[in-house]
Amino acid sequence: MGMVIGLLENLVFIYTILLIIYIFMSWFPGARESSFGSFLGRICEPYLDMFRRIIPPLGMIDISPIVAIFVLRYAMVGLKALFELLGLY
C-alpha cells in the first residue's frame, strides 16, 4: 500500500508543478494560446475554476491558484495521515 501513497504523492507533486507553470504562463503574452498552454488549460482550469467561483480576485491579483495549491497539498497530507491511521501505510 505504500507504493500507492508514493504514486499519489508523485502525481500530486507533478500536478502542482503543472499548476505553477500554468500560473506563470499568464505573465507571458500568447503563452496560454500555444498548444502546450491549451493542454495545460484543459488539465488545470477545471480544478482552478472551483476556487475562482469562491475567491474573487483582489484587483488585478488572483489568489485562487495559491489557495488551490495549498488545498491540494493539504489533501495529500490528510490522505497520507488517513492511510497511516488505517494501518495501510
From TrEMBL:
**InterPro entries in the cross-refs:** CCB3/YggT
Going by the UniProt record, its keywords in alphabetical order are: Membrane, Transmembrane, Transmembrane helix
Q: Does the keyword Chaperone apply?
A: no
Span-the-membrane segments of this chain are 12-30
The record's listing under Pfam families reads:
CCB3_YggT (PF02325)
Which family, according to the similarity comment? Belongs to the YggT family.
PANTHER family assigned to the protein according to its UniProt record, in alphabetical order: PROTEIN COFACTOR ASSEMBLY OF COMPLEX C SUBUNIT B CCB3, CHLOROPLASTIC-RELATED, YLMG HOMOLOG PROTEIN 2, CHLOROPLASTIC
Q: What is the protein's name according to its record?
A: YggT family protein
